[in-house]
Amino acid sequence: MAGNDLAMRFTEDKYATKNEVARELKISSVDTFWANILAYRSNFYHYLTVKTIEKKMLLLCGCPAVNSLVNNVEMKMIRVNREYGMLLPQSKSYRYLNQTFNKKILYILNEAEQLQVGEDFVNSVLRNEVVSALPNNMLLVNYLSALNYIKKAHVNAIDEDFLAALYAKLLGTEELTEFYRSNDDHNPENRVLIDRIYTSAPWNIIDSMMNSLFTFIQTSTLSSSLKAIITYFYINYVKPFNKYSEEVAILMAKAVLAHETFGETVVDLPLEQLLLLSNEEVARIYVEVQKTADVTYFVNYAFKHLNQYCESYLDEIAQSKVQELKADFYQADAKEEEIEVPEQEERVETIDLFEASKEEEPVKEPVFKEEPAPVNEKPVIEEQPKKKTVKVTYVQEELAVAYIPVALDEKQAVLLEQDLLERDPELKKGEAKFYARHCTKGKKYTIAQYKKSLRCAYETARTSMDHLAELLYYRKEKVKNKYVYIPVEKE
User: Fold this and answer.
1) Selection from 7, 73, 69, 78 nearest residue 36 by Cα
2) Fewer Cβ atoms within 10 Å of its own Cβ: the N or the C terminal residue of the chain?
3) Do 440 and 407 form a contact (C-beta atoms < 8 A)?
4) Domain map (residue ranges) of the chain
5) Cα separation of 348 and 53, whole Å?
């Protein structure tokens, strides 16, 4: 009974390592206790398709405490994504947050890579004014370009081609002259023969390890946030590139989040904060994962930080909305004060109806004065200006159609998109985004429209439209030589 209590304590209360168990129990040998702890954890193991360098299959322990932590973070990320996604791009809140998040990302990269650039350079990058700079400093410009690429291509399959295009953006080149590493790093630990701890994968197995990662991303049924964090861990573990492997790991994690559930808005969130975690602590956790093949140690560590990040994002979004309301309130007060006109001042009103009519010149008409006229003389006639008039002619334009097409505004479309995703787990983010804006009864939509709207490949657009038809969002019909998709009425 005591063994079960310890197993739950060192799994649920704290996902402890063997050394931490020995330290807390203050005994040198904890083999018996550790065996009970592993037996308890094995009830919740999920084996992944990615493997360690020694060919051990990575596992994830989905015990109640870890599940609760992951679900809590996932719900907060959904809230962040919804709150941020509902802001209109032209609103002050959106512009402020977008600027704030991008600036934070650049400062994190500046610190992580020790670039030591100043605020003026960061602001120039944000204004897209940097044409050339030191090669290392161009990382900031190229990183924003890579983020924009994820936004445009987040519906594309995440495979080697996607990674190559992303890496090219990060390097600031149109065509890659090299891709994965073709040599091993020279860290002394890689030369140890017994109980070796790898600081990166040997170059000759990078290709197979990365292929297993792509298979994991495409086939795993884990939640999108779990897949993203495991992707981040694994790329940092393999270190497939000669430089910027850590930045690629973050970009790929964002791509997984955007592709799976959250769409392009998640790309703006400064998840790059993970790059600034304690190097010593992260290294210790990586060693533990290599020894045990249990990636839960890293998941547990990373999600605790993600939980704090999401809280700060929600606070920043709320503050931006409050600031916008205050600004609008004071602006409205200022306008009211401007409208007040002193009593002595004349108001001059002008009418300008696209110069459809002009003011007519005053027409003088005769006015007879009732004064006695001299005998045999005609009465004197004085001319008096007539009141000024303005003739207004309204031209009623006529349309060729007798109805106004039904359409949702962007805010309504975003709400519908979120509702669709929450109601139908089979629906992908890009599909929901397209359908929310193309669901008018009686209209006929095409694959080309999907391709243009989501900026994706034709094959991706065709697959997505067929999937929507399978889910009964559209009815697929052939008109002449092409297929069209007609919205099906849904409750």
Assistant:
1) 7
2) C
3) yes
4) 2-46, 62-185+203-322, 412-487
5) 82
CB within 8 A of 105, min separation 6: which ones? Answer: 143, 144, 147, 270, 272
- Residue 273 · residue 310 · CB < 8 Å: no
* Distance, CA of 236 to CA of 230 (rounded, Å): 10
Distance CA 407, CA 418 (A): 17
pTM of the model: 0.68
* Residues 133-160: tens digit of each pLDDT: 888 999 999 999 999 999 999 889 999 9
Has residue 408 got a pLDDT over 90?
no
Q: DSSP readout, 4-32?
A: HHHHHIIIII----HHHHHHHHT-S--HH
Contacts of the segment 387-391: beta carbons below 8 A, 24+ positions apart: 388/359, 388/360, 388/362, 389/360, 390/351, 390/357, 390/359, 390/360, 391/357, 391/360
62-185+203-322 and 412-487 share one fold: no
Q: What is the C-alpha separation between 86 and 83, in angstroms, rounded?
A: 5
- The CATH number of 412-487, from 1.10.10.10, 3.40.50.720, 3.30.565.10, 3.10.450.50, is 1.10.10.10
The pLDDT tens digits for 335-344 are 555 544 444 4
Residue 272 to residue 144: CA distance in whole angstroms:
12
Q: What is the CATH number of domain 62-185+203-322?
A: 1.10.3290.10
Alpha-carbon distance of 302 to 250, in angstroms, equals: 12
How far is 282 from 199, CA to CA, in rounded Å? 12
DSSP state letter for 155 = T
Question: Residue 78, CB half-sphere, CA atoms under 13 Å: how many?
Answer: 16
Strand partners, 365: 384
Res 230: pLDDT? 97
Task: Determine the number of helices (DSSP H) and then strands (DSSP E) in the chain.
Answer: 17, 6
DSSP state of 405: P
For 191, 213, 446, 477, 478, the CA distances from 482, given in Å and listed in that order, are 61, 37, 8, 9, 6
Whether the pLDDT of residue 196 is over 60: the answer is yes
> One-letter amino acid identity for 419?
D
The bridge status of strand 381-385 relative to strand 364-368 is: antiparallel
Distance, CA of 419 to CA of 92 (rounded, Å): 25
Residue by residue, DSSP assigns 299-356 as HHHHHHHHHHHHHHHHHHHHHHHHHHHHHHHHHHHHHHHHH---TTSPP-----STTS
Q: SS3 of 430, please?
A: helix
As to burial, measured by CB atoms within 10 angstroms (0-12 exposed, 13-18 middle, 19+ buried), residue 264 is: buried
Structure tokens at 122: 């960061």
